[in-house]
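Table S5 (text form). Sequence records supplied for joint modeling of the two-component complex.
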Amino acid sequence: MAPVGAGLWRTLRAHQVYGANTDVGKTIVSTVLCNAVQRQKQRAAFLKPVSTGSLDEADDRHLKRYGAGTVTKCLYQFDEPVSPHIAARQKTIPRDDDLLASIHKTLSDWARTDIDFALVETAGGVHSPGPNGNSQADLYRPLRLPIVLVADSRLGGISSSISAYESLVLRGYDIQSVLLFRDDYYQNHEYLGNFFRNKSIPLVPLPAPPARPSQTDASSLARDEEAMSSYYQKVSQESDIMRLLEEMNIKNTERIERLEEMASRAQDVIWYPFTQHYGMRPKDITVIDSAHDDFFQTFGTNRSEKPESELRPTFDGSASWWTQGLGHGNPELSLSAAYAAGRYGHVMFAGAVHEPALALADNLLKTLDNPRFAKVFYTDNGSTGMEVAVKMGLRVACDRYGWDATKEQIGILGLKGSYHGDTIGVMDCSEPSVYNKKVEWYRGRGHWFDFPIVKMVDGQWKVEVPAEMKAELGSDAEFDSLGSVFDLNTRLSSETSQRYKDYIRNTIEDLVKRHGMKFGALILEPVILGAGGMLFCDPLFQRCLTDVVRDHPELFSPNAPSPKGSASWSGLPVIFDEVFTGLYRLGRPTSASFLGVHPDIAVNAKLLTGGLIPLCTTVASQEIFDTFSSPEKSDALLHGHSYTAHAVGCTVAVDSLKAMADMDSNGAWEKFKTDWSPKATATANASVPDVWSVWSQSLLQDLSCAESVESVFAIGTVLSISLRDAQGGGYTSNAAKGLQQQLAIGSDQFNVHSRVLGNVLYLMSSVTSKPGSLQELENLLRSSLV
Amino acid sequence: MAPVGAGLWRTLRAHQVYGANTDVGKTIVSTVLCNAVQRQKQRAAFLKPVSTGSLDEADDRHLKRYGAGTVTKCLYQFDEPVSPHIAARQKTIPRDDDLLASIHKTLSDWARTDIDFALVETAGGVHSPGPNGNSQADLYRPLRLPIVLVADSRLGGISSSISAYESLVLRGYDIQSVLLFRDDYYQNHEYLGNFFRNKSIPLVPLPAPPARPSQTDASSLARDEEAMSSYYQKVSQESDIMRLLEEMNIKNTERIERLEEMASRAQDVIWYPFTQHYGMRPKDITVIDSAHDDFFQTFGTNRSEKPESELRPTFDGSASWWTQGLGHGNPELSLSAAYAAGRYGHVMFAGAVHEPALALADNLLKTLDNPRFAKVFYTDNGSTGMEVAVKMGLRVACDRYGWDATKEQIGILGLKGSYHGDTIGVMDCSEPSVYNKKVEWYRGRGHWFDFPIVKMVDGQWKVEVPAEMKAELGSDAEFDSLGSVFDLNTRLSSETSQRYKDYIRNTIEDLVKRHGMKFGALILEPVILGAGGMLFCDPLFQRCLTDVVRDHPELFSPNAPSPKGSASWSGLPVIFDEVFTGLYRLGRPTSASFLGVHPDIAVNAKLLTGGLIPLCTTVASQEIFDTFSSPEKSDALLHGHSYTAHAVGCTVAVDSLKAMADMDSNGAWEKFKTDWSPKATATANASVPDVWSVWSQSLLQDLSCAESVESVFAIGTVLSISLRDAQGGGYTSNAAKGLQQQLAIGSDQFNVHSRVLGNVLYLMSSVTSKPGSLQELENLLRSSLV
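The corresponding structure-token record, covering 1572 residues in total, follows.
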């Protein structure tokens, strides 16, 4: 099913009419507005997507009769005056997606005619269920039309109007105007007028309409019709209405003008992250009007000359820098965030505790399922969380080995191409690269191993050993499935494993004994080194590296004690940077589980909040924590940002972790798992672990055989495509630009935002991505590459 | 007016009854619940704070008649069946604070009797206005009683019930149960039952009550009374009701048990920021159940033995680590956050733009009002924002002066006691101190000037020159007001100014020429060095330091060009760290304005979001931006966190900046300004600038004369008290602990959370703190010290 674009037309001012409650006069208000438009020699149109019953005053027939020539349309008509979800039980129900598509099409068709103004009327109140039982406020959200809210003038109407307004706001709707009937006894229009004026939303009170006829004989009905006609004639000429329509007109124009200037305004005042501004033009900047599920709604990206909506769905193919999990504009997470903001705001965390911080710590320890872990330290992002991890690691190593770090340099053991963040301390944990070598204070401290790479080439999974390591590690190896690459139980007893270990051990020995280096921590991004270029490290190599470090503490210091048991660190504290790879990004709660390793310290961020706001955790063992315990205050880990463990982030994270764990246990990814299960491959093997991806095996096969493709892989939500590059690849390569541009053009359904790392283009879904969208993406990739 | 404590009693289960709309049967539901309680041989009580009119079914008289012995009370009775804010026009209106205090007192009194269960019934819907026109959902929020929500069983009731629920949730209420009448035609109970089950909130449908009598003769009324009695008799024995009451009972018990264990659970799993855990006990951890305005609601802090509420208001005297501006649990900011979450979630910022990020950049450039500033770079917290500033500063200096930073060490020029964050790169910008010297990778790089300090001693404002600088800078000076310390127009032409400049110039010359040092940036926290111990630097010294650096570029490199004009940096790029001091913390939009200096780079955070969530901006001049522009991608500022410019933070920041600017222009702080205006001092002087504080001048006078006090100062929202310490002060001093403990005990009204920095205890208000609360704090300080 195609995603629907949000609605915004130059030639058509389209609005959605929501009522604060049922029976507040939505249709009468719509009729007044349409009348007024028609009287100004413009054309109005009225769309009732779903109509239920004659008792509900909302009705396209009313518009037909009194609308002064307004074009009217109803998409689905039910007869009973009950909620559409009940009425729909007796009828063929339109799917929500189809309903949205029909509305979008109707409005787009109207935009091609001389119609200037359109109202799409909802049924009942804002949360009244649509035909499939979903709240209309959620159902219609992808269109995100500007709202005309009809407030309630009755007793209790102040409350229901404000609550309805808040329900719309927390779904990211813009309320453009409020109308209601004047009632001089309850005076709701006065109170609400002030309320909405403070929000800069115009409110117009209308005279109350004629009373409904108490009898239904012909003459009563005729009198009623006459009264209604004269009501509309009078009211639709009121200056307040004229002014309101003019304001709505201006708002539509200004909104488009603002969208048109946003890219160049942004270029004026924004200094972009990771961006070379040289030669950058406004058209290189994507203007995002809103986002929903996997899609941005982008401005100026439509290819067509026709008066389509100005907004187009753009698949968020970088998962907004690897953060997205539960969809943009997720109303559950919005409400979670709002609850925490309403209950706490942000409260001081040093020396205090609040429920969300404690609940998240508990939940996270459970999710990570690592018997070593005991303590959770909060910071704001992966970079700061890694700074904390490094401070922890260096301290415990120096403490155990009796090193004075002010007098000697203590380094990091890691992998080439690693990346742990943008603050200078964690930049120093990586070898010199394009990211850091021009940072004036950068001083790479440590040693970084090159390593064998997992990839699919020409339909074949293989582990490729770098040329200069082949003498020691052996030649490339082929695997019949990705699962068997991860079959470490089997592979650990292989000759390869022994070669890996010997190589690692010899290298460390050489560095320490011959070059006098000292190491304070082993830092790994398990499975995939993301920012380094989506480097898929042979898990056996990472496992062997960890094993060697832990089994041979004597490598690092003659004072080193022997390994003490499962909760104690040995050799070096092992830090896993799971900021990118953790929390279901690769299909599992942790990426450590792929290696069968329990790190001493782990850092999580990005998906932690489901993709809403920054938050990071550094989790450590009790032994590491205890090293900082001392009667000296200054021995403590003196780190802490002002918003440490902010309640909004912790609350959203608790709910996100729960949502993802529920999906996992409810089998939400079974379809993908089945596609990737060993049964689907030639040689099923009971010991082959569960490794799967939302990207299909057949896509990988086909892409890996494409001429322009060097290799591919997929795991969990990640798809990586290495393009052939005559110049040899790397961060400055342009090989992937062509594919990126084709995705940016996209298909009839949508286009795709993607990021490249040198000659690698990757795509990343959220954990809730719809199979239909993923299928369309696969089609796009095939048509671009195969 | 005393703040009210949130309501939570061991011996009394108190709830607030909200209706999804008016006329949904709140009183009947209350009567059913109270009946059921009474039948279980427990005692029930019913409180109607404000009752309006006999047509409104909500009525304590109904409870009296049918409540089976329920204790009833009504605090304010109005006769007209309209909203309380209209009814109240004819009567003496209770102030909101008084109303809350009366409710709290009534419930506390009941808690001392044998009453087990109490309901506090609201009037109308959740947002129906209270007597003073404020929404009840806001008005009653400080009590934050668990909610019994009466849903609406009528047509449209699904929508109004869910919206009412959302309005309560976004104010941080916990909805404990939902009840409504069964209506088999509309079946709202089925839909809502599913909806609330997904939220783990029990929903119980009740049989519809007997129809109201159509006539009012005595026999009709008698029949009605009989029907109602038998309705209550039957319904209140239903097993669903019994089960619900039992669940509510368990929830109350579990909530208290959870609060009781939270501190020790936190000690088990939390690694606290800036905290030495050695010797820490659970009782050292403050358990925060919620927060509102300036107050935490803390558990276990009540001194009294009586069955008071388990929660006590605790003034947030550190402004939650200097972040708070617009009050905890601010419903406007909650809604802003929810809107952004609903409209965008988080969307990718590299190469894209969205309205909140652009609007905040525009707004910030306007707020900072510095003609040099052109570009805004976003990060997540002050530490990361300063890392960016340092990267900017070092780059432009190396670029201009032709230094190769990989081969030589480029340092920072700053002040002793400066602090710029916890990441290692910005730690290196400060001299060795207790905060950083034990961080293994810390290497202080630069030179830090000692400086004269502003303080009030024995009622006298003075600038105190460190002993070892007296020979060069002259002796201490006295001032007749704080304003005259900031009268830089006058002071710049003084001999002191010349001495300052000579000293600074000679020192730099010595460092560069004699010691071969190179400097890449001047970094200052204008006016107050916060983390260093609330050090109030003589603004003249900071001004002279900036002037010398800019006027004498030749000090730093023989290649240095002469100053080029107002937009160009000269000598060194000047970086102002306004993370703590900016955005109204000191009473002005910028702290740079106190020095009359336009920095080249400024960093803002903390108050930027009004105190809700992490966000930081680094703002720079066009010239600095242009230095990074090059055909080489790797010359760009390759920095960027995943949640860069997250929409929730930017939206909240836009609204916070607007709210603070509005307060400024609306004269919200006039009362304080008047207290501090030069007219109030002996020698008014037209050139003395506007410097003021929320803390009174007379408090400062009195505290500064107290025996245990060494000195004090106040500016903007900050009050700093240096206690005498025989051991000489510093971060490890315990001199301020006694005062901190007295504040933690507090008064009858509330107690105070405060932080100390060595021998300094500071207090910090938000920009919206109530004069009454501040007055009570001043009383507490006087009674503790004077």
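Note: The longest helix of chain B spans residues 239-269.
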